[in-house]
Amino acid sequence: MPSTLNPSRFTLADSTPARCLVIVPAYNESGAIASVVTGLHEHLPQVDIVVIDDGSVDRTHQHVPAYATVIRLPFNLGIGAAMQTGYKYAEYYSYDVAVQVDGDGQHPPAEVARLIDYLLENDCDLVVGSRFKENINYQQAPLRMLAIQLMRRWIQLLTGRRFSDCTSGFRVANRKVIDCYAHWYPSDYPEPEVLVLLTNEKMRIEEVQVHMEQRNTGQTSIPFFRGIFYVIKVVIAVLLDKMRDPWPHRKH
Question: N or C: which end of the chain has fewer CB within 10 A?
Answer without folding.
Answer: C
